[in-house]
Amino acid sequence: MKIGILGCGWLGFPLAQKLLADGFSVRGTTTSEEKLSTLKEAGIEAFIVCLSQEGITGDLNTFLKDLDILIINIPPALRKSPNENYSSKIAYLINELPTNKLPKILFASSTSVYADSVTFPVITENTAMLSDSINGKQLLEAESLFIQNDNLSQLTTIIRLGGLIGEHRHPIKHLSGKTEIKSPQSPINLVHHYDVIDIIKAIIRDKKWGEIFNVVYPWHPSKRNYYTNAALDRSIALPHFEENGPSLGKFVSSSKVTTELNFTFSHLL
Fold first, then answer.
1. Which residue ranges does the record assign to the Pyrroline-5-carboxylate reductase catalytic N-terminal domain (predicted)?
2. CATH number of the domain bearing residue 195
3. pLDDT tens digits along 14-31
4. Is residue 239 part of a domain?
5. Is 0.90 topped by the overall pTM?
């Protein structure tokens, strides 16, 4: 089985390594020559492909040729490019999919598609709370390109990821010493990237296509408690939170993942 990972970065690269270890043939893309050799040395058939709102550069057609599964892992880059039209990038990609053999598709989205509220609602995959954030709106538009496409809707599974953490990546590194952080009482919705990798493997194993899954570790302390303790554990400057003003947030439920995939989260936050 041939699996292509569009975006072999912090999540995509270890995912590719795990899939290779499981015996899959893996292709991967990067946007830099520097990273190309790293992918090749790991046994990945590597390509330079760059998606922009103007179009696509690189050998995308060869990358896509005869794939059984395409994993799309290219989140919006709104911090670097605030005016980026993310959904247009995905539309260009969809237009290039081989019509003679459409692959199964796994699209990595985000829980930012759900709106925050002062009531901290419990969010499931069926919740019709649509985000008013730019990031959330762009991801929803991109999701709809698959969901509303008659040829792709039943081939595509969307995973809505919580905030990603890992061994060398944690939000407290950016929040340490910051002041006036908003919504101190809002619940966290995070997930370890190794759990995400295991969930992707389970989706492939169980052939769960045409689905939407929330992917969030089922533990939701308040931002204040979680990040204060994270700073104390690392002996770094504490974050300081806004004392006035409402806290906006949500509890994102991942019960569908645990029941339908018989999955147990194993990497603590």
1. 2-77
2. 3.40.50.720
3. 999 999 999 999 999 999
4. no
5. yes
Pairing label, strands 122-123, 212-215: unpaired
Residue 46 near residue 56, CB atoms below 8 Å: no
Pick the closest to residue 135 from 105, 160, 104, 113 (CA basis): 113
Would you give the DSSP letter of residue 261?
S
Q: Which phi and psi (to 5°) does residue 62 adopt?
A: -70, -40
Residue 213 in any domain: the answer is yes
165-193 residues labelled b (16+ CB within 10 A) or e (exposed): beeeebbbeebbeeeeeebbebbbbbbbb
- Where would I find the beta strands (DSSP E) of 104-205? 104-110, 122-123, 156-161, 163-165, 190-192
Largest CA distance in the chain: 58
3 state DSSP class of 233:
helix
Tally the domains of the chain: 1
pLDDT tens readout for residues 105-155 = 999 999 999 999 999 999 999 998 678 888 899 999 999 999 999 999 999
Query: Does the residue 72 lie in any domain?
Result: yes
Domain extent at residue 96: 2-168+189-219+253-260
> CA 85 to CA 77: how far, in whole Å?
10
